[in-house]
Design a protein that fits this description.
Chain lengths: ~500, ~725
């Protein structure tokens, strides 16, 4: 018997709930039907709820292919690996998933993907950096698609005042994967009549982009790290110039940029004398002759010395640059009325931390007084930073910077820093790599109240680990692995596992 | 008001006969019901037939014009019971729900209905939720059809076939006095396609006529001795009548093929994927031509013995295509063939997967195995005779495996709560309360709130069924008797509460003097099924009576300890209520009602209003949240107690901070949860709310000008002071 060789054009669309995948499907179907084709589309919508991934599936058949005028195509309801002509993915990892499901094949599939990321909950909840690496995924797409269109379709849509479904639809037009002219794509959007102008703008921009062949897949760097600025030739403030000169004179050149960042931070945090203290502390690591160690010391000593406290928060919240940034964020002009409400919840330890050491210790010792203070101060506060009253309140707190050196928190922090640096300096002559890793462990100490307490206790464990690992072969790598584990989850499971894997003694 | 409006689509329901109708499967079903002269329709929403209920609700004026009664039932049991109107009266009725879970709920009524039989055509449209994306993915409606002896239609996933099945269903029901189930698989419900319409019909017999001239027949009531009679009727009258109708009207299809000694018997709903698999194996084509003869069971139950024998006549082997287990069809076919001494081999679960979706890929490999076993020549390359021909490609090889990177770990993406969801703060509060009072046993329920079982909340141990959250904690009341230090916590939504939780959960807890904590999550809608109104909805609904508080209901059944939290975003209040319920001396059921409107519904209503107000020059304050990157610690503790999709990550922009910082994206609806939780959990002061005043008033402008003047001075002073200790130049003040 003779079988027809006609095939349907099969399109799979992978989108997250709320990304407008359904709109995209409606456009494709509307266009194909308008062009006299038979279209069938389906999806499993119930599972999209609410932020999960959905696959929409469309099959298109030309009526010209009919062997008899009354012939009806029999269309399938789901994408078949190896039998998909076009895959559209509205997010990078979903594009990767399409490849892993076998929907993208080198002999057949045009893949149109947005390179932007929508992070999953698991990526976001990691205490450190839990983001999946985008680059291998981009390479995976390139290796498996017959034709690849990969760009940030979300940004392109926003730039044109539209939504991602429009830019993806435009990219589909530009890719030439469907036998319809650009005018057919634009026609369906025009007939639909909603947001026509902006949709067309986004579509045309994406179509142009899709027509250019891409040499190397473009993805935003998934590493979230920011590079240090180049050390300036002249300090902005004359008072700082001697410190800048000291960096150039006394420190190895590869560490200069990080020293510049560190110095800028501590100066901003306190004053010029504090900048000198900072350079003194880093200078202790110069004699070991390793620029990496110096750069790490420059990085983490600056972080440690500019610990998060109420004074710094109040100062950051009342800066004029911030006012401008908030306006930009909501797209408000300079004369528009904008205000903010800040969420604070200082607790007794933070309040006590602001007091002079002696006074704070006396209050701590007096249970009744502590209780009274806690009841008075330990509650959530909403402060309107842009109002006169709120601004005054915050500036008063920020003004405590001048008294910071005498307060309890500062004394505690400085003691903690000293122990850490003493330990690193003691280890350095024998095992510089281990000492450097110990410097990097400061990454664990961050934040406020419970977060700070959790980070500090993990840091203390790593300090202990450094001592236990001393003299072991591969001690530095072991400490680094413990640090990475500590940043993987909030409960400390990964750290405990790593700890036992390294056969470190269970600790008190 | 449902999440999706079909107001525009339902206009198609009135198109004249002979029009080409384009739309989704559910819309086609609605049109077909009207073409069949249905007298009443009811049902219970739930994927994949939620939209059918929404279409019906939006089509209310059209239905009324035609004399069709519609109501959304309180549960599947209520819907099934409504079919009793067709027991004694020749009125056509249709009901719909999600199967198999909904069919379980309806089973009592269905058993009684099927026992006595029906006079008017009775159609039960079930969203067959087998497989991917379903709740109870491994169960099939087929079992219910068999046990109650109701006929089960499983049409091809093709709009004309689906529409025809509705027509056939009513007629078959009337011809055999038996309720008929029409199963639509999940993808068929959402299938876009087209069909040619017929004229809408008014009901031939109306419910009014029934009310005016009531009739009763004691033999239709399930009481002995009539119930014995019913079984006899089923076997001796109704079944043969159905078989006769199915044969005479050719509800099943026979498709010829040239490999005559083999064949495929497939359920209608799987036909398209079978034919695609045949096409990929070059044993069929796009237009439904097939080399393997096919017998398409548009009627999945009952099997027609004579048709089976006719199809298998002279065949060496047939392959049975039915998803899931047990293999009902395979067993039944074997029985028929053995009983008649026919030697045809039956293949099925030996070549096809025992469970899971019958994807085209699975079918392709099963059919390939079947043909290779019995007719390998089908795959042989044709031998050239004389003229050289273009080489014919051999059957498609197995799918091309990606060349690299299958080992790349892609982050999983389970479904979760929407941006601004009012349920998120409830779970954050519960998490905080448990940080204080220890981990507790939590019984969950069906609904959006079940997403609390996913990261970052990770709570809830079981989910037993819709509205059964409260009753599934009942055994743990043992703690009261035997002295446990902790109480069990049970959750349920407002949808589940009205579906059955009031009686089975709360009433049961009062009666049995439970000491458990019951958390009722009231978001004003049956939200997970698409935002349909229920008794306690706050919206005005022209056709329904709403605004019946859950609190009144629980007090009505005897609950004394009730805490009502009217703004779930108030994490402190929420956490305090939960903590109090966990620790109070009060001995009895403790009910917390946490009420805030579903944000999805709220935004759908409010967003256009706000946009119009701004455009119209009204003073509008628009809010959203932000994070100070310099203040954020990069620890992401806020995400671990929130998980809001708009709370995401961004580079810190600071070389000294290698970890990404929290960032609120433009999807933020300013529910305030991130700020509240940062406050309650004492996390970090980096969150702030921005208020932008559109069309500011004179007063606003005056105050703003004053602030600018005074704070501007101050800003310049502090800025200058900072410039005195700056290494890098500071940002210029504009």
């Amino acid at each position: 018997m003779s079988l027809s060789k006609a095939r349907s054009i099969n399109i799979a669309i992978l989108a997250l709930g709320g990304q407008g995948g359904g709109v995209l499907v409606d456009w494709i179907v509307g266009m194909a039907e308008h062009e006299g084709w038979t279209a069938q589309a389906t999806s499993v919508a119930g599972v999209a709820q609410r932020t999960g991934a959905t696959i929409y599936y469309v099959e298109l058949v030309s009526k010209q292919d009919r062997p008899r005028p009354d012939a009806q195509p029999v269309l399938a309801l789901m994408a078949v690996p190896g039998d998909v002509d076009v895959v559209i993915a509205a997010e990078l990892m979903e594009a990767g998933r399409a490849v892993q499901r076998g929907l993208v094949t080198p002999d057949r599939t045009t893949l149109i993907a947005s390179s932007h990321r929508i992070y999953s909950v698991l990526e976001k909840t990691t205490p450190g950096n839990g983001l999946a690496d985008s680059e291998p995924v981009a390479q995976l797409l390139k290796d498996n698609a017959r034709q690849l269109v990969l760009d940030d379709m979300q940004a392109l849509a926003v730039k044109n005042g539209s939504v991602i479904s429009a830019s993806l639809f435009g990219a589909l037009a530009g890719s030439g994967a469907l036998p319809f002219p650009q005018s057919a794509f634009e026609g369906v959007v025009e007939r639909n009549g909603v947001g026509v102008k902006t949709s067309l703008a986004a579509m045309r921009a994406a179509a142009d982009l899709a027509r250019q062949p891409i040499a190397q897949p473009k993805v935003a760097a998934s590493g979230m790290e920011t590079t240090a600025r180049a050390l300036p030739d002249r300090a902005a403030a004359p008072a700082v110039q001697p410190l800048l000169d000291r960096i150039r004179a006394d420190f190895p050149a590869p560490a200069w940029n990080m020293l510049g960042e560190g110095l800028a931070r501590v100066l901003d945090y306190q004053d010029v004398a504090y900048g000198q203290e900072y350079l003194d502390r880093v200078a202790a690591f110069v004699r070991f002759g390793d620029a990496t160690t110096v750069a790490e010391a420059a990085h983490w000593i600056a972080v440690a010395m500019s610990y998060d406290d109420v004074i710094r928060v109040a100062d950051l919240k009342t800066r004029p640059e911030r006012w401008a940034r908030v306006r930009r964020e909501v797209g408000a002009g300079a004369d528009e009325v904008v205000g903010t409400e800040e969420f604070f919840h200082p607790r007794l330890p933070e309040i006590l931390g602001l007091l002079p050491v002696g006074l704070a210790r006396r209050v701590q010792a007096h249970a009744g007084l502590s209780g009274w203070l806690a009841a008075r101060f330990d509650k959530g506060r909403r402060i309107r930073a842009f109002s006169l009253r709120g601004h005054v309140q915050l500036r008063l707190v920020a003004g405590l910077r001048r008294l910071r050196r005498g307060n309890l928190r500062h004394a505690e922090e400085m003691q903690h820093i000293q122990q850490w640096l003493d330990a690193a300096l003691a280890i350095a002559p024998q095992d510089l790599a281990l000492a450097t890793e110990l410097l990097r462990c400061r990454r664990l100490v961050k934040g406020y109240s419970d977060t700070h307490a959790r980070g500090s206790s993990r840091f203390d464990r790593l300090m202990q680990a450094a001592q236990l690992l001393r003299g072991r072969e591969g001690a530095a790598a072991a400490l680094a692995s413990l640090r990475e584990a500590a940043l993987r989850d909030a409960e400390g499971k990964a750290l405990s596992q790593r700890w036992s894997a390294l056969q470190l003694p269970a600790t008190a | 008001m449902a999440e999706r409006s079909f107001a525009a689509e339902v206009r198609q329901l009135e198109v004249p006969a002979g029009t080409e109708f384009h739309g989704e499967g559910i819309l086609a079903v609605t049109k077909a019901l009207l073409e069949c002269g249905v007298g009443y329709v009811t049902g219970y929403q739930g994927s994949p037939i939620s939209h059918l209920m929404d279409v019906l609700a939006d089509a209310q004026p059209i239905l009324e014009k035609l004399g069709v009664y519609f109501e959304p039932a309180a549960s599947e049991a209520a819907a099934a019971s409504a079919l009793s109107a067709s027991v004694s009266y020749p009125v056509r009725g249709a009901v719909t729900w999600k199967s198999t879970v909904g069919t379980n709920v309806a089973s009592d009524a269905l058993a009684n209905l099927a026992s006595g039989g029906v006079t008017g055509g009775s159609l039960i449209i079930v969203g067959e939720d087998y497989g991917e994306g379903s709740s109870i993915m491994q169960e099939r409606t087929h079992a219910f059809a068999m046990k109650s002896q109701m006929w089960l239609l499983d049409p091809r996933p093709h709009l004309p076939s689906i529409v025809k099945a509705v027509h056939d269903g009513f007629a078959l029901s009337e011809a055999s006095n038996t309720p008929v189930m029409l199963q639509l698989r999940i993808r068929s419900c959402h299938l876009h396609g087209s069909f040619i319409t017929k004229e809408n019909q008014r009901p031939k017999f109306t419910l009014n006529e029934a009310l005016e001239a009531p009739v009763r027949d004691v033999n239709r009531i399930v009481l002995p001795p009539a119930s014995f009679l019913h079984e006899k009727e089923k076997i001796e009258n109704r079944w043969p009548a159905a078989v006769k109708y199915i044969q005479e009207h050719q509800l099943n299809e026979f498709i010829d093929g040239d490999i005559e000694h083999l064949g495929i018997i497939t359920l209608g709903g799987l036909t398209n994927n079978v034919q695609r698999a045949l096409q990929l194996l070059e044993l069929g084509d796009l237009w439904g031509e097939t080399r393997l003869p096919m017998y398409v069971l548009n009627v999945a139950y009952p099997l027609v013995e004579e048709e089976v024998l006719r199809f298998c006549q002279g065949k060496k082997a047939v392959l049975v295509v039915e998803e899931g287990q047990p293999d009902y069809h395979e067993q039944h076919l074997n029985t028929i063939l053995r009983r008649h001494g026919v030697g045809t081999a039956i293949h099925g679960k030996d070549l096809l997967p025992m469970g899971g979706d019958y994807t085209v890929a699975a079918l392709r490999s099963g059919i390939r195995g079947f043909v290779e076993k019995h007719h390998p020549a089908a795959f042989a390359k044709p031998v050239s005779l004389g003229m050289p021909t273009v080489p014919v490609a051999s059957p498609k090889p197995a799918p091309v495996i990606p060349s690299s990177g299958n080992d790349i770990q892609l982050p999983p993406r389970p479904p979760g709560l929407c941006v601004g969801c009012p349920e998120r703060p409830i779970f954050s509060s519960l998490k905080l309360a448990m940080q204080e009072h220890g981990q507790h046993h939590i019984s969950s329920d069906i609904g959006c709130h079940l997403f609390s079982s996913q990261a970052p909340f990770d709570m809830g141990a079981t989910t037993m069924g819709y509205g059964l959250g409260a009753s599934s904690a009942s055994a743990f009341n043992a703690g009261k008797l035997f002295g446990s230090s902790k109480r069990a916590i049970a959750m349920m939504g407002d949808g589940g509460f009205w579906h059955n939780g009031l009686a089975t959960g709360i009433g049961n807890a009062v009666f049995n003097k439970h000491d458990n904590v019951f958390l009722i999550i009231d978001n004003n809608y049956s939200a997970a099924t698409g935002g349909q109104d229920i008794l306690s909805s706050r919206a005005d609904n022209e056709h329904r009576s709403t605004r019946h508080p859950i609190e009144n209901a629980v007090r009505g059944v005897g609950v004394e300890w009730v805490r009502f939290v009217s703004r779930t975003y108030d994490v402190n209040a929420m956490r305090d209520a939960i903590s109090e319920a966990m620790t109070t001396e009060y001995d009895g059921p403790k009910v917390i009602i946490a009420q805030s409107e579903c944000m999805l519904n709220r935004q759908r209503r409010e967003k256009p209003k706000v946009a119009a107000a701004i455009k119209g020059g009204e003073r509008v304050v628009k809010e959203r949240f932000g994070v100070d990157a310099a203040v954020c610690s990069g620890d992401h503790a806020c995400m671990r107690v929130s998980g809001c999709p708009s709370l995401t990550l961004a580079p810190s922009g600071d070389a000294l901070k290698p970890d990404p910082v929290a960032h609120v994206d433009e999807a933020c609806v300013a529910c305030g949860h991130c700020g509240e939780v940062a406050d309650s959990a004492v996390l970090c002061p980096s969150f702030y709310k921005v208020e932008r005043v559109h069309n500011a008033s004179g007063g606003d402008r005056w105050l703003n000008g004053l602030r600018h003047k005074v704070l501007g001075c101050w800003h310049r002073r502090t800025h200058a002071a900072r410039a005195q200790r700056a290494l890098f130049p500071l940002e210029n003040l504009s």
